[in-house]
Task: inverse folding
């Protein structure tokens, strides 16, 4: 199974949840409406305004993210005379780099993450974010990077099966097979897994970076033969649901779905989780130029971000959005002040310098 | 007038007639062109990248000798592919033997059983194995309730699971070439051996088995080559712990964007498969193996 990024998994969750009601044809129609209707409209009434402003192509991972992004981002931007066109083909690192290297860039904004920043930044494949247009006061500055800017927040959390583990376990218990026997589950990616191994080993949250990779491997090594490694979000969900694993580290969005679909048999906690930003990145030489940053700035509006939380579970990046979050969504919002306070935060600088070799070492380690 | 036109056209027409090969070349030209543009050129680019990224030279290839990560992964790939091939061959041989000796009516049903899995997506099959093999799956539940075992067997999330899934996928590719070969064996040879006093097993081992070897060699190469490129089954049934070359290449190309390393491994895979085919073409008729004539 393809290894997934967080962004890719988000759309899949929603599509699984809504599939009963939404047919493939509906989705296609929605995609057509999003992609083609704006173009048709502007062809009909070509105002000087529309002429002057370029179309911004935003790439996400398709499916139901198309509808959610349309409501949260595309429509509000259109009200201010801008045009975002969604492309659901998924911006993997290799694809972005292919475009930039061949000199034929058709994407303006990509729904990406820290690893895109870490791998493509050094290859000089990303535009610098223009912070004279994108407003730093509408985000947590620690997630505003030179070549990428936060679009939403997500977390890696610990979930457990309450039918086998009665009281709430600590992260240290995750590595204690004597206390709680049974299989564990981790992601087939070093990101967040190393951090959580170190937290479990007693490293304080604010002293995580630079990561002591060897210590993390040693910690994981103590239970390695009892760990299953998941590739895709849906895999992590089914492994917990089917009772293959009693504890697992997974994305909070999947943990949310698990909790509701198992009637609380699977529970999870944000405590000692890792808060990570999803990022907008702009490929070098993007066709819409600066208009891409105008679009990003428009997507900083708190209302749209709350809509995305309701639709897909992604936490708002704009701190001002927190007060708009309805009470029933607060507990599952990874970026809410209460949840953010008990989590560690990822450090992109460390990833820039170390991701490639650490990820490879992790793959080698778990397959040995 | 007509004669004039005839003579003017003659040289070309004669050339065509005197060199049928030219005519065939012309007829296949569109296909050849298509292959050159969409197949040979991109593959050429891949080879080129493997010696130019990140710097011109053979640095990527020296990794084969120096990188423990790549060596371990290649060894895993080779080990699983060889074991899969061996197990597949044994099972395929038994099935083929039964197929050849079955009545036409039974044969039809058996063929259906062999071919139907070919039409089912590899993903669906991996998930079916998941239902059978997992800790609380059908096999473990049945064995536990029957009291044969006390603790569930580890049938998946390891190399055992990967092998089960791969062997199942490969069986038709093993059975079909072996069956095709066995069908062509003259049964009278066995009858003659028996008539000359050979016991049944002796007749099989000294007459039938040697005659069926070309099919076995062909099947083994087919299965081994397919196994080398396996991606979905190891990733799903291996519990994330079985890293084979296809997945390794994918990581290099799409995630850590070390294109030089990825293309180098792709090139090596191509070379290994090419060499294997070249060696085997000396033993068996490849055209026949792949379905021609």
Result:
């Amino acid at each position: 199974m393809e290894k997934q990024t967080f962004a890719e998994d988000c759309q899949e969750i929603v599509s699984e949840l809504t599939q009963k009601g939404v047919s493939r044809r509906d989705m296609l129609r929605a995609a057509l409406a999003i992609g083609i209707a704006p173009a048709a409209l502007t062809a009909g009434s070509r105002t000087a305004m529309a002429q002057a402003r370029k179309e911004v192509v935003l790439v996400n991972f398709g499916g139901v993210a198309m509808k959610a992004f349309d409501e949260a981002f595309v429509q509000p931007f259109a009200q201010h005379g801008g045009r975002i066109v969604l492309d659901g083909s998924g911006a993997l690192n290799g694809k972005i780099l292919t475009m930039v290297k061949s000199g034929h860039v058709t994407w303006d904004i990509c729904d990406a993450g820290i690893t895109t920043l870490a791998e493509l930044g050094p290859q000089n494949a990303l535009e610098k974010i223009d912070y004279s247009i994108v407003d730093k006061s509408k985000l947590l500055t620690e997630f505003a990077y030179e070549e990428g800017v936060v679009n939403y927040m997500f977390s890696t959390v610990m979930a457990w099966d309450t039918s086998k583990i009665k009281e709430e376990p600590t992260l240290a218990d995750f590595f204690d097979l004597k206390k709680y026997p049974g299989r564990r589950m981790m992601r087939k990616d070093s990101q967040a897994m190393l951090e959580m191994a170190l937290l479990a080993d007693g490293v304080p949250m604010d002293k995580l970076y630079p990561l002591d990779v060897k210590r993390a491997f040693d910690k994981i090594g103590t239970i390695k033969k009892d760990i299953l490694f998941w590739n895709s979000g849906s895999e992590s969900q089914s492994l917990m649901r089917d009772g293959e694993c009693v504890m697992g580290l997974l994305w909070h969005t999947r943990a949310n779905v698990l909790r509701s679909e198992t009637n609380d048999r699977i529970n999870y906690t944000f405590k000692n989780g890792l808060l990570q930003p999803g990022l907008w990145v702009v490929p070098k030489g993007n066709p819409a130029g600066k208009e891409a940053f105008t679009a990003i700035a428009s997507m900083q509006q708190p209302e749209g971000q709350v809509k995305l939380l309701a639709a897909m579970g992604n936490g708002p990046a704009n701190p001002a959005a927190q007060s708009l979050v309805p009470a029933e969504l607060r507990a599952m919002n990874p970026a809410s002040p209460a949840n953010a306070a008990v989590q560690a935060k990822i450090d992109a600088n460390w990833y820039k310098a170390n991701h490639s070799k650490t990820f490879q070492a992790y793959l080698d380690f778990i397959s040995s | 007038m007509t004669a004039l036109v005839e003579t003017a056209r003659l040289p070309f027409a004669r050339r065509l007639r005197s060199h049928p090969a030219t005519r065939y070349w012309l007829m296949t030209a569109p296909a050849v062109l298509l292959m050159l543009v969409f197949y040979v050129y991109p593959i050429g680019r891949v080879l080129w990248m493997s010696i130019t990224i990140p710097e011109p030279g053979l640095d990527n290839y020296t990794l084969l000798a120096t990188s423990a990560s790549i060596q371990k992964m290649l060894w895993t790939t080779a080990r699983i592919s060889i074991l899969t091939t061996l197990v597949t061959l044994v099972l395929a041989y038994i099935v083929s033997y039964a197929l050849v000796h079955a009545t036409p009516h039974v044969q039809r049903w058996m063929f259906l059983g062999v071919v139907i899995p070919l039409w089912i997506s590899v993903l669906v099959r991996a998930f079916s194995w998941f239902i059978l093999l997992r800790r609380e799956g059908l096999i473990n539940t049945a064995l536990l309730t029957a009291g044969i075992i006390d603790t569930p067997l580890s049938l998946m999330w390891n190399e055992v699971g990967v092998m089960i899934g791969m062997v199942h996928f490969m069986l038709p590719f093993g059975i079909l070439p072996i069956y095709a070969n066995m069908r062509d064996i003259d049964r009278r040879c066995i009858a003659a051996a028996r008539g000359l006093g050979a016991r049944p097993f002796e007749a099989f081992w000294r007459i039938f088995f040697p005659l069926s070897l070309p099919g076995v060699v062909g099947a083994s190469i087919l299965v081994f080559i397919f196994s080398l490129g396996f991606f979905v089954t190891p990733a799903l049934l291996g519990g994330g712990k079985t890293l084979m070359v296809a997945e390794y290449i994918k990581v290099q190309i799409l995630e850590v964007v070390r294109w030089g390393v990825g293309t180098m491994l792709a090139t090596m895979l191509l070379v290994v498969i090419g060499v294997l085919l070249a060696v085997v073409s000396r033993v068996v008729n490849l055209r026949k193996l792949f379905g021609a004539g």
Observations:
- DSSP finds 16 helices and ten strands in chain A.
